[in-house]
Amino acid sequence: MRHLLDTRTLSRDDAILVLDTAEDMAATQQREVKKLPTLRGKTVVNLFYEDSTRTRISFEAAAKRLSADVINFSAKGSSVSKGESLKDTAQTLQAIGADGVVIRHPASGAPARLASSGWIDAGVLNAGDGTHEHPTQALLDAFTMRRRLFGADSRGRDLDGVSVVIVGDIAHSRVARSNLWLLNVLGARVSFVAPETLLPYGTRDWPVTIHHSLDDAIRLEAPDVVMMLRIQSERMHAAFFPNEREYARNWGLDDRRVGGLADRAIIMHPGPMNRGLEISSGAADSPRSTVLEQVANGVSVRMAALYLLLSGERGESA
Ligand code: CP
Questions:
Q1: How far apart are CA 59 and CA 102, in angstroms?
Q2: Which of the residues in the chain have pLDDT under 50?
Q3: Domain spanning 12-134+295-317: which superfamily?
Q4: What's the confidence (pLDDT) of residue 316?
Q5: d(C-alpha 209, C-alpha 213), whole Å
Q6: pLDDT, position 318
Q7: Which of 147, 139, 88, 135 lies closest to 111, judged by CA?
Q8: How far is ligand 1, taken at its centre, from the CA of residue 283, in Å?
Q9: Which amino acid positions bind L-aspartate, per UniProt (predicted)?
Q10: Is 55 annotated as contributing to ligand binding?
Q11: Is residue 224 a contact partner of residue 162, using CB atoms and an 8 Å limit?
């Protein structure tokens, strides 16, 4: 693979390779000097057409820890606002010699278009495209689950038999889709919990169990992982906005529901969180919550992805 565009086409072996390489990277981050020379002389461009906090700073930290030169490009304040096309922007990046392009775009399929266009020679990493996929988020989520559930001895393991309940605005969530495909290939059991209006068309053909009640899902699925999602109002027609009080009551992870989880269960959220809506502060800040671990693990996982795709050392087998 030259590009990381989705998890739907990722094999189990490739997924385990990324997770195990991320373990190697995490070990290097315990050292006093965190920087590795691996990508010295390479240029990574963060090309962001949508807002981001975690993904952007995490890719920047990952590339810098591998000694790459990093260029941060935000569509806001660039010539994109003057109508410049993706093709012309990409060819500009080619002209400055980009080796890797990390792209976030509101249009589903934009990273794949960039990768197959012939406009650039760089490896393309999808940092979230529309409602399609967010593969590095799913990989860092799987890495976090593996570490929390199996401890230090998680290298080489998949997530066979792990019960994962994903709750909220599935319809607009690229995180839910990337997690579904990756968790399936790793052997986990996935359930979606959402009101009917926040489930995407076609879900019933996907390898997932559907619930409309969070209480039912917690009772019936005995989750090892509860992953909460925010309502993505920026992708929603106003007619579909749920009533916030009703939503929090039926689908929010509050302190009462946290009390009903098994002792081993962990609480995940990709961020940004809407505290008091899909998740209470008690749940977000509890010892079960992995929210900040997910952010920290994201650097190791993105270091692994950049290394495997751009170093030319193990990229051929990634
Ligand atoms: N998880 C995630 O994609 O967060 P950001 O939108 O802040 O990058």
A1: 8
A2: 315-318
A3: Aspartate/ornithine carbamoyltransferase (3.40.50.1370)
A4: 40
A5: 12
A6: 34
A7: 135
A8: 19
A9: 82, 174, 230
A10: yes
A11: yes
Q: Where in the chain is the domain with CATH 3.40.50.1370?
A: 12-134+295-317, 135-290
What pLDDT, in 10s, does the model give residues 63-120? 999 999 999 999 998 999 999 999 999 999 999 999 999 999 999 999 999 999 999 9
Count of Cβ atoms closer than 10 Å to residue 32 Cβ: 4
Dihedral sign for Cα atoms in the order 163, 164, 170, 174: negative
Binding site membership of 53 for ligand 1 (Cβ less than 6 Å): yes
| 135-290 carries CATH number 1.10.8.60 | no
Is this prediction's ipTM beyond 0.90? yes
Smallest Cα–Cα separation from 80: which of 107, 55, 53, 98?
107
Ligand 1 probe mutation, 50, 54, 235, most atoms within 8 A of CB: 54
